[in-house]
Amino acid sequence: MPLKIALAGIGKIARDQHIPALIASAEWELAATVSRHATGVDGVEAFDDFNAMLKARPDIEVVSLCMPPVPRFAYAKAAIRDGRHVMLEKPPGATLSECHALEAMAREAGVSIYATWHSREAMMVAQAKAWLTGKILHSLVVTWKEDVRKWHPGQTWIWEAGGLGVFDPGINALSIVTEILPDPIHIATSELFIPENCETPIAANLTFTHPHGAQVSAELDFRKEGDQFWNIAIETDQGSLELSEGGATLSINGETQTAASSDNALQGEYPRLYANMARLVRGRTIDMDLSPMAHVADAFLLGKRISVEPFIE
Ligand code: NAP
Fold first, then answer.
1. Annotated catalytic residue: which of 90, 145, 224, 304?
2. 36 CB near ligand 1 (under 6 Å)
3. Cβ(268) to ligand 1 under 6 A?
4. How far is ligand 1, taken at its centre, from the CA of residue 177, in Å?
5. What is the average pLDDT score of the chain?
6. In total, how many domains does the chain have?
7. Is 37 a pocket residue for ligand 1 (Cβ < 6 Å)?
8. In this prediction, what percent of the chain has a pLDDT beyond 70?
9. H-run or E-run covering 285
10. Nearest residue (CA) to ligand 1, atom 42
């Protein structure tokens, strides 16, 4: 039997990724949508109030929350308290403490909760991780530079406190780094470039401390026009690796790699996320890895603020 799921927050990512992934999956039945603006999906029951959906549809076991991070906690809490399993878009919340609280609530209620990191499901990430195992890291450089006007049109929440600014995409890079690196790292220095009229950074430069002294850094920039970069370049004692296009492309010692046949079983980041969620729900387990978010929190804690020209969309 497919698992019944309600999708809440019907914006860009819900329409671009969640809805197509759910409709294509035999494991899932998109049973309801919740949108404050009553935009839904043809043939699927639409609600404009989350609590009304919970009350009207006790048959729906799982909710997937696609709204921005700041309002997400209240929805997740209501769902868990009502005995539903919860899938969270990235970042899983606005603060680490509220994510810990959600995990504790889920454990107490006996439901699954999943902090998703879609970039970890990019096609070549698992192969990059496997190649790095047992090698000595010399350096890792993240270059995540995109045009915010192109990818996030009209998303004013990104510039408000809790919206993360350039860390909204930058946390995707950190989700890959924390997945593929065998050793834990932590932020050593952070520079945050904040437009005069915004509450969040438009660019950030980070350096990290690595336990064996490797040079690890990240350059994140939302102001990049023209070519866009979502790259992670790594040097080791046994050669170099470059993940590009957000983890979709991998080259090792300059040679482009093809996906292993097992990686092709389920195409796409979001189909894989939903397959993971189905496994968690069926096993009543929890996946709440907050390590990418901890780096972002530390970048804000240690961040040297540098004021830059106002951002006008
Ligand atoms: P979005 O289109 O700006 O917003 C998503 C939806 O959230 C809105 O359409 C709205 O849905 C709901 N919403 C907005 N503000 C709300 C509030 N204050 N309270 C309750 N609901 C609210 O954003 P998005 O790009 O889809 O991003 C949403 C989340 O997905 C973010 O955490 C983002 O990091 C993540 N994400 C985005 C992308 C991307 O490429 N855009 C990729 C991966 C992950 P209703 O009008 O239906 O209520």
1. 90
2. yes
3. no
4. 24
5. 96
6. 2
7. yes
8. 98
9. none
10. 13
For 211, the token pair is: 């336990």
Instruction: Classify residue 264: in a domain, yes or no.
Output: no
Residue at which a domain ends, from 89, 115, 141: 115
DSSP secondary structure string, 235-279? EETTEEEEEEGGGTEEEETTEEPPPPGGGGSS-SHHHHHHHHHHH
As a whole number of angstroms, the distance between CA 72 and CA 256 comes to 39
What atom in ligand 1 is closest to the CA of residue 33? 47
Active site residue 90: yes
pLDDT above 70 for 240: yes
42 and 176 share one domain:
no
- The residue-averaged pLDDT of 97-120 equals 98
Confidence band of 261 (pLDDT split at 50, 70, 90):
low
Rounded CA gap, 83 and 16, in Å? 28
Which residues span the domain enclosing 102? 3-115
Residue 281 lies in a domain: no
Q: What is the mean pLDDT of residues 163-191?
A: 98
| Closest C-alpha to ligand 1, atom 3 | 155
pLDDT tens digits, residue range 9-40? 999 999 999 999 999 999 999 999 999 986 78
Atom of ligand 1 nearest to the CA of 9: 11
| CATH code for position 224 | 3.30.360.10
Cis omega (within 30 of 0) on the bond before 271?
no
